[in-house]
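User: Let's play a game. I give you a shape written as tokens, and you guess the letters that built it. Ready? Here's round one.
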């Protein structure tokens, strides 16, 4: 009898809402790194040479900051300097990371969803701005400039993460799945 297993099955990858899939790419230490939702972190010299590392999570986004690679995942934000050791630095469902000059902005599932780091992702502080809560699978932020992001879920906001102020730009829209650079 022929096996019914997909090539991903031996690695233990699964995604209950469809096939496991690559969600993001980054260039880190002269290697291509890719996140898999849900699966192993992948690394290779080229896309065709990607191989799984011994790090498994429900991963969403990558961001290189200084000597660190940050990974936004369903159970938090991880930081690695070497792709061997991974430290969880923030808990919560994380799904977006943006570099704004000297700070990093991320978002988690919360009524105050924006978080910032001033030390390349090692520690995080909440931005005290209430916004519509993101849902599963939403990358709700995109960099506007060195201190502002566009945040979009069921409305669109321009948020100054330094001054911790938001301006609503558009009201009552369908849930945004991903915000692109503006």
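Assistant: Ready! My guess for every position:
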């Amino acid at each position: 009898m022929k096996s019914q297993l997909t090539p991903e099955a031996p690695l233990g990858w699964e995604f209950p809402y469809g096939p496991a899939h690559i969600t993001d790419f980054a260039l880190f230490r002269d290697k291509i790194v890719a996140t898999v939702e849900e699966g192993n972190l992948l690394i290779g010299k080229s896309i065709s040479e990607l191989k799984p590392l011994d790090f498994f999570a429900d991963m969403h986004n990558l961001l290189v900051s200084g000597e660190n690679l940050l990974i936004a995942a369903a159970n938090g934000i991880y930081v690695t300097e070497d792709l061997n050791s991974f430290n969880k630095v923030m808990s919560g469902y994380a799904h977006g990371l943006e570099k704004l000059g000297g700070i990093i902005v991320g978002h988690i599932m919360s009524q105050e969803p924006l978080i910032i780091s001033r030390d390349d992702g090692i520690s995080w502080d909440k931005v005290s701005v209430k916004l519509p809560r993101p849902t599963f699978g939403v990358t709700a932020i995109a960099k506007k400039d060195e201190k502002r992001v566009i945040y979009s879920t069921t409305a669109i906001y321009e948020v100054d993460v330094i001054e911790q102020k938001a301006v609503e730009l558009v009201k009552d829209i369908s849930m945004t799945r991903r915000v692109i650079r503006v």
